[in-house]
Amino acid sequence: MSQLLVTSYGDPRGSVSLDRAVPVVLGADDILVEMEAAPVNPSDLLLVRGDYGVRPSLPSPLGGEGSGG
């Protein structure tokens, strides 16, 4: 599984990387959903530039929307 990571704040062309995600250990009440699509929204670009209003600790996963099954 891959994920987009914000590695630094600034120009999105140099501040985001595509990395392998650490496998998640599921608990008894958890389910795993396979992502089929995940957009990059304007709010994601604002976050990468440091202009969104919050600055998570880096590196940080990027994206808050998606669809899967």
What gap, in angstroms, lies between the N and C termini? 15 Å
Number of domains: 1
- Extract low-pLDDT stretches: none
Strand order of the largest sheet: 2-1-4
What kind of sheet is the major sheet?
A: 3 strands, antiparallel
Order of helices and strands: EHEEHEE
- Over all CA atoms, what is the radius of gyration? 13 Å
Strand-pairing-aware structural class? alpha+beta
State the helix count. 2
Q: Helix coverage percent of residues? A: 10-25%
The tally of strands reads 5
Mean pLDDT: 92
Strand content: 15-25%
In one word, what is the shape? elongated
Describe the structure.
The protein is α+β, with helices and mostly antiparallel strands. Helices cover 17% and strands 25% of the residues. The protein contains 2 helices and 5 strands; from the N terminus they run βαββαββ. The protein has helices at residues 12-15, 42-49; strands spanning 2-6, 16-20, 35-37, 60-61, 67-68. The strands form 2 sheets. A 3-stranded antiparallel beta sheet has the order 2-1-4. The longest helix has 8 residues, at 42-49. The protein is elongated. The relative contact order is 0.33. The mean pLDDT is 92.
List keywords for this structure.
69 residues; alpha+beta; 3-stranded antiparallel beta sheet; two-stranded antiparallel sheet; 5 strands
Summarize the structure.
The chain contains two helices and five strands, in the order E-H-E-E-H-E-E.
Question: Helix and strand layout, with pairings?
Answer:
Elements: E1 2-6, H1 12-15, E2 16-20, E3 35-37, H2 42-49, E4 60-61, E5 67-68
Antiparallel strand pairs: 1-2, 1-4, 3-5
